[in-house]
Amino acid sequence: MLIPEEKxxxxxxxxxxxxxxxxxxxxILIVCVLRGGVFFAxxxxxxxxxxxxxDFMSVSSYEDGTESLGRVKILKDxxxxxxxxxxxxxxxxxxxxxxxxxxxxxxxxxxxASLKLCTMLDKPERRTxxxxxxxxxxxxxxxxxxxxxxxxxxxxxxxxxxxxxDLGEGI
Length: 171
Ligand code: 5GP
Description:
It is built from three helices and eight strands. By secondary structure, the protein is of the alpha/beta class. The chain has one domain: 3-Layer(aba) Sandwich (Rossmann fold), CATH 3.40.50. α3 links the parallel β4 and β5. α1 crosses α2. The chain is globular and about 50 Å long. The chain starts with a helix and ends in a 7-residue tail after the last strand. The model has no long low-confidence stretch (mean pLDDT 93). The structure holds guanosine-5'-monophosphate. The site of guanosine-5'-monophosphate has 17 residues, from β4, α3 and β7.
């Protein structure tokens, strides 16, 4: 276990409070990145006191080795129009930063009033592309983690805490 449930949820509550202060008087459109971001986005939304809308998006990076900067494959697009909205992307984890870098470029084109990024976990050591992370619950070392929405081959998302995957222990 890397981050127990109580510690994680206390920190999410704190970030929710900070976001509520920063967005006072405004409405937030949470863009939750599927599937890993779902548990975090729902818990976070419970602690935001300004009005919140939620929408969901599923993306994958093009990994064909060609010049694909700024392009992501949209597997499920948003239903909401972003124009003039205060958009907060809510992600499970930022690793290299590639997916989010591309996603942000796609969303910027839709002319939101503001576009910020909130992540549950961040592995700064792994970053290859600089992206502006506005809210982070926890920075973690370079390890493969599961739980609280994060999977390994679609398993372990439902663990209520963040754990480090140990491939040696009968998965
Ligand atoms: P990036 O484009 O930043 O390299 O990749 C981000 C995505 O990779 C995350 O949204 C997540 O789906 C996946 N990912 C990165 N690190 C981990 C990890 O430690 N555990 C799990 N389960 N997924 C990860």
